[in-house]
Write a structure and sequence with these properties.
By secondary structure, the chain is mostly helical. The chain contains 1 helix and no strands. The longest helix is centred in the C-terminal third of the chain and has 39 residues. The protein is elongated. It starts with 45 loop residues before the first helix and ends with a helix.
């Protein structure tokens, strides 16, 4: 479940308003679309940076594996399929 680490845990709630308050009842969505502070300083923490690097590496591996899978299996299948139907 890598998707859980996509935001690397922002320090502010997505429901917080620009003035720092959180409307009650919690999570009513009143300020959900207001701008939030950037979370770039979080990457200065070694553990979060390491987590970011691991997830980024896994995503690259996933992309490379998918390209290899598509070319290796479907590319070869396409060539075999084409050879079987020469006009």
């Amino acid at each position: 479940m890598i998707w859980q680490f996509g935001e690397l845990a922002n320090a502010t709630s997505i429901f917080s308003c620009n003035n720092g308050t959180i409307p009650q009842p919690y999570g009513n969505g009143q300020c959900k679309l207001e701008s939030k502070p950037a979370s770039w300083p979080l990457l200065q923490q070694a553990a979060r940076k390491q987590l970011y690097n691991v997830v980024a590496s896994l995503n690259r591996l996933k992309q490379l594996s998918q390209m290899h899978f598509i070319y290796h299996y479907f590319g070869q299948f396409g060539q075999r399929f084409k050879k079987g139907f020469n006009y």
